[in-house]
Amino acid sequence: MSPVAFQNTFAGSPLDRAGARRLDAAWLAARLMDPASWAVAVWNGKLLADEAGLVMLPVAFATTIEPDPDKLLFLGTDHLGKAGFAVDIADAGDPAAGPLEGRGEFHELRPLAMRLSGEHAAIAASARSLFEWRRRHRWCANCGQPTRAAEAGWKRICPSCHAEHFPRTDPVAIMLPTFGDRCLLGRQASWTPGMWSALAGFVEPGESLEEAAARELLEEAGLTAVSVRYHSSQPWPFPSQMMVGFLAEVSDDQATPDQTELEAVRWFTRLEAEALLAGKIDGAFAPPPLAIAHQLIKAWVERF
Ligand SMILES: [Zn+2]
């Protein structure tokens, strides 16, 4: 159960992360032999799913396909007390056309998440993000030697210099600027033509989330924030951002896109923003509901 009122897609895992069990080698070994334990399969960042959602394989079967313990992650225990794992299959060929034939297909998470349950989307997000981190941190950032997995996949240790490396979660401030009865959306040149979204940027060292939101507004759109109000956050597993969403009231409507991050900005009234979310404006659309940007616009339309 989430302790917050608003929950974005990719949050809301139903699992007890059971952090203390990550250090319990005997318990983990027993769970890997337990026929009730399950595993989700990841291959090249894609998740194994069928029409019903994520495919939960018996973990003993999954670890015969990918026996390398470095590719295993303990996700937690489910409401029945069963242990859940994820395996990152390293096969060059598509395992769904090999040892996993008939058990589903591997899908990119972003389109897949549109049809997964919220609980499955959150489980998939944890597995994908963690394995992406592992893939990018196989060598020690301190001394350059190979690292190895520890704590059931949640940590990497360098046997050479003994540095410990933990999964990254990079904070991004994402905000909807508002001025009276209008909100501002922007678009980047690389986006699908017609898509308008909230403004966003990575938080820099030595900066609060609110300061990052205000700085990005000024840099990207030339707007000055007079108040910044928190709405909600979203783990974004592409590969490992933490989107922190704000509504930002600005001092005037003289917005200018910087032409570096943003190629254009556009003000929308509440009615126009509502129509945009509903897909009722010709040639313009907002991100889908799974994106926190959509939820920020919706919250403002509904006078959050
Ligand atoms: Zn090292």
Question: How are the SSEs placed, and which strands pair?
Answer:
Elements: H1 25-33, E1 38-43, E2 46-50, E3 53-54, E4 57-58, H2 59-65, E5 72-77, E6 83-89, E7 105-107, H3 109-113, H4 118-136, E8 148-150, E9 155-157, E10 164-165, E11 170-179, E12 182-187, E13 199-202, H5 209-221, E14 225-236, E15 241-250, E16 264-269, H6 270-277, H7 292-301
Parallel strand pairs: 1-6, 11-15
Antiparallel strand pairs: 1-2, 1-4, 2-3, 2-7, 5-6, 8-9, 9-10, 11-12, 11-13, 12-16, 14-15
Helix pairs in contact: 6-7
Zinc ion binds at residues 140, 142-143, 145, 158, 160-161, 163.
Describe this structure in words.
It is a single chain. The chain has 304 residues and is of the alpha+beta class. Helices cover 23% and strands 29% of the residues. Strands 1, 2, 3, 4, 5, 6 and 7 form a seven-stranded mixed sheet that branches. Strands 11, 12, 13, 14, 15 and 16 form a six-stranded mixed sheet that branches. Strand 9 and strand 10 form a beta hairpin. It is globular, with a radius of gyration of 22 Å. The model has no long low-confidence stretch (mean pLDDT 96). The structure holds zinc ion. Zinc ion binds at residues 140, 142-143, 145, 158, 160-161, 163.
Bound molecules: zinc ion
**How does the overall form come out from the CA principal axes?**
globular
N-to-C span? 22 Å
Q: In percent terms, what proportion of residues is strand?
A: 25-35%
What composes the largest sheet?
7 strands, mixed
Helix content: 10-25%
Instruction: Kindly state the number of beta strands.
Output: 16
Question: N-to-C SSE series?
Answer: HEEEEHEEEHHEEEEEEHEEEHH
The parts where pLDDT drops under 50 for at least 5 residues are none
Radius of gyration: 22 Å
- Structural class call reads alpha+beta
- How many H/I helices? 7
Average pLDDT taken over every residue = 96
